[in-house]
Specification:
Layout lengths: L16 H7 L4 E2 L3 E3 L5 E11 L5 E9 L1 H9 L7 E5 L5 E3 L15 H7 L4 E6 L5 E9 L4 E8 H4 L1 H40 L1
Antiparallel strand pairs: 1-3, 2-3, 3-4, 5-6, 5-9, 7-8, 8-9
Amino acid sequence: MTSFTTPAHSVNISDRDYFQAALAGRTGISAVIVARGGLKTKTIVLAVPVAFDDGTRGVLSGALKIDKVDQELRGVVPAASIELRVVDRNGQEFIGPGGEEENAPDVHARSEVVEGLAGRANALVAKDLQGRDALVAFAPAPVAGWVVILSEPAAAAFAVPNELGRTAGVLTLVGLVIALAIGWYFSGRLARSYMDIET
């Protein structure tokens, strides 16, 4: 290994999963490295396979801060009531409310994390990290080995459908009243026409 800050052959990363993935011909991405305290940086290591002119193979790797990824992902969340969380393959939340804390919550056993890391995407009503009922949607990001999770309190998530249900109920009642009024009107006219015929 060679770098700008480390002498050649002084660091061995051959046991790292991202390095092994690159040797196998795939892009490798490390688990997220979160430096807390005064630094508060989030970094991943990317590794890609390279083929040299003489036919030998190698790995090109580098560390990238993911602050921009954090900002971009937060920028596409459509409402302030929706909480975005991203968890790496080790169950470590690195984007979201727990991603900035010194003692980030342990989320690796939560059902959305377990299912997402298993490659499944789903939406369900479950308790969020604050213990509230929430609509939780999750999907895996398989190349990186991450799970992207969106959650919104159930009251806010179902506010529009509940309002639509109430509106539909009111409109149904209004339609029923109008239908009864029309029926009453025409039955009255029909009754009067029979009375006119009889007289």
